[in-house]
Amino acid sequence: MLKHRIIRPMLLLAQTPKALHRFFQLKPPDLPRTPGGEALHMKCCLLSTQGPAETGRQGQPQGPGLGTRLLVTTLFGAALGGAWLAMRAEKEQRQQQQRTEALRQASVGQGDFSLLDHQGQARCKADFQGQWVLMYFGFTHCPDICPDELEKLVQVVQQLEAEPGLPPVQPIFITVDPERDDVTAMARYVQDFHPRLLGLTGSAEQVARVSRSYRVYYSAGPKDKDQDYIVDHSIAIYLLSPDGLFTDYYGRTRSAEQIVNSVRHHMATFRSVLH
């Protein structure tokens, strides 16, 4: 009989925490007693029916595990990063389209030109239609800026040539000093840069016409005792599309890598307006 009186409260304790609360509220006289009259001391173990992932240290419900939280945080961060990159790319593309449209409306490079290349062959703008062109205006007696810019132009052409699948780019050097830069001088000068660099020259009137077309400023300085002089001129590399249209320009501060990235972008987004 005593055994049954002991086991029954233990089963009650193992069933619910509420039963445990009622058990500890029992008054001493209500506790089971031994025949000797002393209160019976019982030891019991509460067995939880919940798994370790569902209960905390004190039986309180827990959320997802650490691994799950890290995974959710990583995915959330990746989603935010992807959205930011997409918005940034869209913004840059929109800005580039706006820049291209503004440059086209500037009417730079409109009309044709007629010049001689460094081999004495007549050249006009239509000769380069269907090709991407990088064009620079300068003069062969330039002490430093022109050689530096032509070296940069050549680096751009070489990097683009090394990328399979990209169309070739024709480099062109147009003189703003027709008095000294005849066909022979141009041939001697361009051979030091790139085998496909094409030097163009012409009469003073022809050079002035093509320079005005591309908004190139130039002015010859005073001659020294050796009849030498410097020509002050605009410094920019021009990009022409296969349609023969002025597409972009790059000032002296633009690096070769920046120009390569720009030209590559123009190639990828090019849509002919002539067809």
Mean pLDDT over all positions = 81
Give the topology string: H per helix, E per strand: HHHEEEHEHEHEEEEH
Number of strands: 9
Report the major sheet. Answer: 7 strands, mixed
Q: What distance separates the N and C termini?
A: 106 Å
Order of the strands making up the biggest sheet: 2-1-5-4-3-8-9
Structural class, from secondary structure content?
A: alpha+beta
Give the secondary structure arrangement, pairings included.
Elements: H1 2-15, H2 17-24, H3 66-105, E1 114-117, E2 122-124, E3 132-138, H4 145-161, E4 169-175, H5 183-190, E5 198-201, H6 204-213, E6 218-220, E7 231-233, E8 237-240, E9 246-250, H7 256-269
Parallel strand pairs: 3-4, 4-5
Antiparallel strand pairs: 1-2, 1-5, 3-8, 6-7, 8-9
Helix pairs in contact: 1-2, 4-7
Overview of the molecule:
It is elongated, with a radius of gyration of 42 Å. The N terminus is likely disordered. A 7-stranded mixed β-sheet has the order 2-1-5-4-3-8-9. It has a two-stranded antiparallel ribbon with strand order 6-7. Helix 1 packs across helix 2 and helix 4 crosses helix 7. The protein is α+β, with helices and mostly antiparallel strands and 275 residues long.
Summarize the structure.
The protein is of the alpha+beta class.
